[in-house]
Amino acid sequence: MKKIIKFMFLGIFGVCSCAFAQVSTSKWQSHPIVLDGDAKDWVTAPSLTNSDSKINYEFRNDDSNLYLILKTTDENMQKQLLQAGFKLRFKVKAKQKITANIVFPEKKVVSAPQNADMGKKPDVAQMQKPTDGAGQKMDPKNIIIPKEFALLSGFVFSKDTITSNKIDVNRVSFANSKEGSVYEFQIPLRDFFGEGYSMDNIIASRIQLQVNINGQTQSRGNGMFPGGMPDGGFGGGDMGMMMPPAGMMPSLDGDAAPMIKKSFTVEFNLTANNK
Questions:
Q1: 242, 153: one domain
Q2: Which of 2 and 81 is assigned the larger pLDDT?
Q3: Cα–Cα distance measured from residue 272 to residue 200, given in angstroms and rounded to the nearest whole number
Q4: Is 198 found in the same domain as 66?
């Protein structure tokens, strides 16, 4: 009787495990996808969705590359991807096991100037204007906005840092839209399976993708002090906490959504042209 109950339990556990597993098959891509941060090459909207993060995604491959798209129309998630950063972790269960990462680091936000005259109403417009090293105002036309970048680790050939829209057919590359709604990736299959692989052999190798989206503490103020108050409060230092001038108190009911860590994992197999 005990053996029967044990087998029944194992059977139920197996059924539940299968029900919760997300296993997909990559679609065959007949021509290379252009990485430009625009989803038009994918024709249809990404077919898979993670409801928690509100991210749509899809895999495709040809005989040279794996293509991956992450897309979201949720503005809060777009900001979180750009500001808090995220990590893609690939685990390949092949003859040579690979664990590889593409990491988008968190962006640090510069705090408000700490040398403002106390008791004087801050010039919000002045605070928001960028300056050069000498404190002079900079012409917005001369501002250089750094491109998005990511760090690589664990791939067979691709190493170090990659930059958005700098496409190299021989290494991992990506492109993203300015608002963070679309991320497109191109990963050479040789970065998973080495040189001389055969499509007929590698389609049996399951690839696991884990998407880890960082969390970040947001200021709930009126936007004057991004990243929080200087010295931990108004005034700081030995002066203790000082209240801001009338009308400048940050709102505690800010509408910025909290950036909470999110994660999801999916598994998929590649496909061959004749399948």
A1: no
A2: 81
A3: 7
A4: yes
| Band of residue 225 on the pLDDT scale cut at 50, 70, 90 | very low
The model's confidence at residue 226, banded by pLDDT at 50, 70 and 90, is: very low
Supply the DSSP string of 225-247, one letter for each residue.
Answer: STTS-GGGSSS-GGG---PPPTT
| Residue of 109, 108, 107, 104 lying closest to 213 (CA atoms) | 104
Answer whether residue 193 is part of any domain.
Answer: yes
How far is Cα 53 from Cα 76, in angstroms, rounded to an integer? 10
Beta strands in the chain (DSSP E): 23-25, 27-28, 48-50, 55-61, 65-71, 86-93, 98-104, 149-153, 161-163, 173-176, 182-188, 206-213, 262-269
Q: Please tell me which residue, 210 or 243, carries the higher pLDDT value.
A: 210
Judgement on whether residues 226 and 213 belong to the same structural domain of the protein: no
Q: Name the range with the highest mean pLDDT among 107-111, 124-128, 199-203, 242-246.
A: 199-203
Q: Which amino acid is at 172?
A: V
Does one domain contain both 47 and 97?
yes
Which residue range forms the structural domain that includes residue 28?
23-111+148-217+261-275
CA distance 272 to 275: 5
Q: What is the pTM of this model?
A: 0.69
Does 9 fall in a domain? no
Tally the domains of the chain: 2
Judge if 241 and 197 occupy the same domain: no
Does residue 237 sit in the same domain as residue 275?
no
- Mention every residue, 6+ apart, whose C-beta is less than 8 A from residue 95: none
Instruction: For residue 207, tell me if it sits in a domain.
Output: yes
Share of the chain above pLDDT 90, in %: 51
**CA–CA gap between residue 252 and residue 68 (Å, rounded):** 39
Instruction: Kindly compute the dihedral angle of the four CA atoms of residues 114, 143, 37, 195, in this order, to the nearest 10 degrees.
Output: -90
Q: pLDDT at position 271, please?
A: 93
